[in-house]
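Private note to self, pasted from the team thread so I don't lose it. Backbone tokens:
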């Protein structure tokens, strides 16, 4: 058996990686999936974390009574109430910013660490905004670049044609199939495409997706398209259900009420998702997991690649495409099997599809936890590059926000002290996300069965799956990588 690297060895690897970055800056990447720094989680961290997750999971199932947990989940601290205004304006400004970023992608610097488009898409949007959504709520509903242009275009069309409704109707039988297809295409572009952070290539992809989505909102209606087809809106809305700030209706006339709640409290009362909605959530989790797996020595060895002689992403496109699909299929199959086995242990209950559609909401904390742990260093380092690039988006020597000459401090992720902080944050995120997921699954099982004993029995296979996946996630952070 291969002996895991010791902590001094890990520190030497981190120092060597930092030196390589300094001596060869042209090898750096802005893409969130690339690892510019080697920060291997010590083996004892994931062993301890996995054991802790096991203990807490089964204690939660055996000892925690559902009634007090449900009461805590229903508590709210009112903040404000009113009719929010300015959403179309904010979205319109977001659209103008997007136009500037796409222009920068076509005409700005060819260096992904100097061009604001890849830094904004892969770091600020996909990493930073996802974390904010899980903390404070659905900011994307205001920031997305389609709502404002759609409002303007639909008003003009209404004046010209006198027709208020969209010309086409999105078939209900399609469900979330469109969102799944677009998310899979996005994940393939991020993880498999040879150059996802090339500014011009990314600009074409972003502009094309904006036009397709805008056409969809005009043809089928904004609400239908963004709730079932536009994958970012679907994903961010699901992640926002974890937030501590809740937005709810307060009477008529578009009034809204803001309130504080416990993390995950909004999920405890969520309605069951259809099977395709559950598959979308499982796809989101599996893509982040494969993002971590595809760079490990274990995966490279499995596909016959020497990590010291890596032939480039184009040479492993077929293997990584298959791995991406296999990871999704394996997680989805394991999840539905665990739900079915739990139903058998509990002696029946609602249909398996209904149980899976409700219990899949417990995946949201795990998905966000993996996102935080996997991309933490990327956000800390590439976020600084983004601040500098946004001040000079077209590489013309501008300094719009006073950050163009910002000195990027890679030391925030390098060194013994920084590595210790990062390790603890990563381990805490994954274990904490798992614990919250187990508690939420326990509450949802009680809703399904109405009996604490049957609910606990139904959750045993799912708890085992969650613990196994948590250990797998911690192993990914501890495994040596070859990219």
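Design output:
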């Amino acid at each position: 058996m291969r002996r895991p690297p010791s902590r001094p060895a890990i520190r030497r690897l981190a120092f060597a990686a930092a030196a390589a970055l300094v001596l060869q800056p042209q090898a750096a990447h802005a893409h969130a999936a690339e690892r510019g720094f080697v920060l291997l989680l010590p083996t004892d961290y994931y062993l301890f974390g996995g054991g802790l997750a096991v203990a807490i999971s089964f204690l939660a199932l055996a000892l925690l009574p559902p009634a007090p947990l449900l009461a805590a989940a229903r508590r709210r601290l009112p903040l404000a109430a009113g009719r929010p205004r300015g959403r179309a304006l904010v979205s319109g400004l977001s659209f103008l910013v997007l136009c500037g970023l796409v222009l920068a992608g076509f005409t700005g610097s060819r260096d992904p660490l100097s061009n604001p488009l890849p830094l904004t898409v892969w770091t600020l949007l996909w990493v930073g905004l996802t974390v904010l959504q899980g903390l404070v709520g659905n900011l994307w509903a205001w920031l997305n670049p389609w709502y404002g242009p759609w409002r303007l275009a639909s008003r003009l069309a209404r004046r010209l044609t006198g027709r208020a409704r969209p010309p086409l109707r999105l078939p209900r039988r399609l469900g979330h199939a469109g969102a799944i297809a677009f998310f899979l295409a996005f994940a393939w572009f991020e993880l498999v495409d040879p150059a996802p952070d090339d500014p011009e290539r990314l600009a074409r992809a972003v502009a094309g997706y904006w036009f397709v989505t805008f056409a969809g909102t005009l043809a089928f209606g904004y609400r239908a398209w963004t709730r079932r087809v536009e994958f970012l809106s679907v994903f961010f809305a699901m992640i926002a259900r974890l937030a501590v700030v809740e937005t709810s209706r307060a009477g008529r006339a578009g009034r809204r009420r803001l309130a504080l709640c416990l993390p995950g409290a909004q999920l405890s009362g969520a309605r069951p998702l259809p099977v395709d909605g559950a598959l979308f959530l499982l796809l989101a989790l599996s893509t982040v997991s494969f993002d971590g797996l595809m760079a490990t020595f274990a995966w490279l060895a499995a596909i016959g690649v020497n990590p010291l002689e890596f032939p480039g992403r184009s040479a492993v496109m077929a293997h990584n495409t298959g791995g991406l699909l296999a990871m999704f299929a394996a997680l989805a199959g394991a999840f539905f099997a665990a739900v079915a086995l739990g139903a058998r242990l509990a002696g029946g209950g609602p249909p398996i599809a209904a149980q899976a559609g409700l219990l899949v909401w417990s995946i949201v904390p795990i998905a966000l936890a993996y996102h935080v742990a996997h991309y933490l260093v990327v956000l800390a380092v590439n976020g600084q590059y983004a601040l500098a690039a946004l001040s000079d988006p077209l590489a013309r020597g501008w300094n719009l926000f006073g950050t163009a000459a910002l000195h990027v401090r890679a030391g925030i992720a390098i060194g013994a002290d920084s590595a210790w902080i990062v390790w603890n944050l990563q381990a805490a995120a994954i274990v904490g996300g798992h614990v919250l997921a187990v508690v939420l699954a326990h509450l949802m099982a009680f809703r399904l069965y109405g009996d604490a004993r049957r609910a606990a029995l139904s959750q045993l296979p799912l708890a085992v799956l969650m613990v196994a996946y948590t250990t797998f996630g911690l192993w990914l952070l501890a495994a040596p990588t070859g990219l």
